[in-house]
Amino acid sequence: MYLFWTKGYEGTSISELTQELGISAPSLYAAFGSKQELFTEAVAKYESDPRSITTAGQGGDSVAGVLEAMFDRAVEEYPNPSHPRGCLVNSDPMLAAEREQNRAITASRLREVAMNSDAALEAETLAAYTHAVLVGLSLYARDGASEQQLRQVARLAVQKVALNARCDDVDELPASPPMNTSKPAG
Fold first, then answer.
1. What's the CA angle centered on 87, arms 100 and 63, to 5 degrees?
2. Is residue 178 pLDDT above 50, yes or no?
3. Other CB atoms within 10 Å distance of the CB of residue 13
């Protein structure tokens, strides 16, 4: 699983797999049928981990609670030195269906905990936003970000969602302070 996690499906060769597993190519094909079937098995094992980020979100009892639980798990897991950095599912282009399934699970939970009908209607968009942040956190971790750096980004994401929830619509969000683009005097 770690080889696929590190290099992705396309980047992992049969030769690398046989070397990693300590078996010959015919044995690999006899045991798994194909590289694709081995990859599918590895992803299923990864997704079945009870510490998964999507599973963590199921414990949240509010919109912010769902996001906090997912982001907390991500910032602990993505830089964890006991396995490759980042997220296998968020790193491989071949796993779009798994990412969509995770977004659907998240949207379902967000609808369950939504305090009003407007928030329930926005659950799909919020789930997409949440998973976009998770993909970004995964890539940031793969680039070497520390848990503290990941936590700062995750905290900002939750704060922005909470701020937006307090406003009736995006047009009412407080304006950002203007950037100082003038050159220093002197």
1. 55
2. no
3. 12
3 state SS of 173: coil
C-alpha 25/C-alpha 148 separation (Å) is: 42
Longest dimension (CA), the chain: 75
The set of residues, in sequence order, having a beta carbon less than 8 Å from that of 97 and lying 6+ positions away, is none
Amino acid residing at 54: T
What average pLDDT does the segment 145-172 reach?
79
CA gap 28, 34 in Å, rounded = 8
pLDDT tens readout for residues 49-64: 888 999 999 999 988 8
- Cα distance between residue 96 and residue 99, in whole Å: 5
Residues 6+ apart with CB under 8 A from 135: 87, 90, 99
Give the closest residue to 94 by CA, choosing from 179, 9, 181, 3: 9
Determine whether 86 is exposed, middle or buried from the number of CB atoms within 10 Å of its CB (0-12, 13-18, 19+).
buried
